[in-house]
Specification:
7-stranded antiparallel beta sheet; 1 helix; 2 domains; Jelly Rolls; mainly beta; two-stranded antiparallel ribbon
Length: 244
């Protein structure tokens, strides 16, 4: 190979690296990006159209520095890239049974978590007791999961502490646990130290990109919020398809 061809090859490699780098900086999460627009096996991915509830507030609260939170203000959820998944992926959590660490919620009933109502109105959310609590969805069978959208309570600007989302085929979550999100930076919930950022709960919810991991059960933890010690859930929406 002569020097001219070598220079052309190097330029092509540098151009490809630059394109991938710009895609990452535009908001594609770590581990989810590829330059082929597929799921890593040649399957074409498309933008998933997710219905969002009505916005209840706008902007970042001015008290951010007083809340002692680890929020990535440079990459807010309102500016995130769409979830990409195979074309046959759909909502698999709608109407599925929900259990919880709190058998008697203070407000609302557990079916509200998967009823499809994402609005932040009275009667649209469930309130659990203070401290570490969880809600768990039984999908009924094993699914290949691509994305989980989580809405705690988006009427006011607040951060929910120790947000941890796990998958498993075991309803007791004693084995086969896959943690797909964890922002508990000090292990106060004793489920391991998380590296993900905390975030303000807004009408767009929190998108957790799962990228085809499989499981039957989804468990979501929280441990109070920056307004009070309560735990709230408006909706948990799981996008996937039957596992092969």
């Amino acid at each position: 190979m002569n020097q001219s061809i070598q220079r052309i090859a190097w330029r092509l490699m540098l151009t490809l690296a630059l394109v991938c780098g710009l895609t990452f900086m535009a908001g594609c999460p770590s581990g989810d990006c590829n330059c082929n627009g597929d799921g890593g096996n040649g399957e074409k991915l498309v933008d998933v159209a997710v219905e969002m509830p009505t916005p209840m507030f706008t902007g970042t609260p001015p008290i951010l520095e007083n809340m002692k939170v680890r929020v990535d203000t440079k990459n807010p959820e309102t500016k995130r890239a769409p979830l990409q998944a195979p074309a046959d992926v759909q909502v698999v959590s709608r109407g599925k049974p929900v259990t919880s660490s709190d058998d008697f919620p203070m407000i609302g009933d557990l079916p509200l978590v998967t009823d499809g109502d994402k609005e932040a109105n009275e009667g649209s959310y469930v309130e659990l007791a203070p401290g570490k609590q969880w809600v768990q969805i039984d999908l009924g069978e094993k699914y290949e999961i691509w994305g989980i959208f989580l809405w705690h309570y988006h009427t006011s600007a607040r951060v929910y502490r120790d947000t941890i989302v796990q998958l498993s085929d075991d309803p007791e979550f004693a084995q086969g646990i896959i943690t797909v999100f964890n922002n508990d930076h000090d292990n106060s919930s004793e489920l391991g130290v998380g590296e993900d950022f905390e975030y303000f709960d807004e009408h767009v919810g929190k998108l957790i990109r799962v990228q085809s991991k499989t499981g039957r059960y989804i468990r979501c933890y929280s441990n109070g919020n920056t307004d009070n010690d309560q735990n709230h859930y408006v909706e948990v929406e799981v996008w996937g398809r039957p596992a092969p």
